[in-house]
Write a structure and sequence with these properties.
The chain is an alpha+beta fold and 67 residues long. The protein contains one helix and two strands, in the order ββα. The protein has one helix at 36-54, and strands at 6-8, 15-17. 10% of the residues are buried.
């Protein structure tokens, strides 16, 4: 049986095993990893927000008066 390497989450500093998650776009360091909890609560919401910003969804409220 293969022994899992223990890593430290770059956000909460808690230990986790396994590969971990890419903390980009919050941290741009290819060696940093985050735990599943921080990925769900910190990284994914930022990625979704940036996706909406890129798609212009955050600007819809600016165009409501142009009818």
């Amino acid at each position: 049986m293969e022994q899992q390497t223990v890593k430290i989450c770059c956000f909460c500093k808690e230990e986790f095993t396994g590969y971990g998650n890419n903390p980009s776009p919050i941290i741009y360091n290819e060696w940093e990893r985050c735990c599943d909890r921080c990925n769900i609560t910190k990284v994914i919401p930022i990625r979704l927000m940036l996706k909406d910003f890129k798609n212009g969804k955050d600007e819809e409220h600016l165009h409501n008066d142009e009818k």
